[in-house]
Amino acid sequence: QVQLVESGGGLVQPGGSLRLSCAASGRTFSGSSMGWFRQAPGKEREFVAGISWSGDNTRYADSVKGRFTISRDNAKNTVVLQMNSLKPEDTAVYYCAAGDSGSYYRGKYDYWGQGTQVTVSS
Fold this sequence. Notes:
Elements: E1 3-7, E2 10-12, E3 18-25, E4 33-39, E5 46-51, E6 58-60, E7 68-73, E8 78-83, E9 92-99, H1 103-106, E10 111-112, E11 116-120
Parallel strand pairs: 2-11
Antiparallel strand pairs: 1-3, 3-8, 4-5, 4-9, 5-6, 7-8, 9-10, 9-11
């Protein structure tokens, strides 16, 4: 079992930045793929970013490429999503996800946090 707790959401103006954090506990964090997903009202949950267990590989949705950065600190069991140049269409509940080492390649994750709200509005 893995427990994931997100933090860092909030209200920000267009063009601003937010930093989301996800604290993990339970299984060996360093061997887990990690990801961020989001779900806007009336829409399905979508992939945002993923990072391999080592941190050497990352991938992003086209809609956030160049604006968002995912990183991890295996010593602190945390994964961070740095979001810059935010747009109103980035408004959503953001979820942290964890899986085994293959999850990064499959895009399928087994464990989910409760989510944190990000609202981009003037």
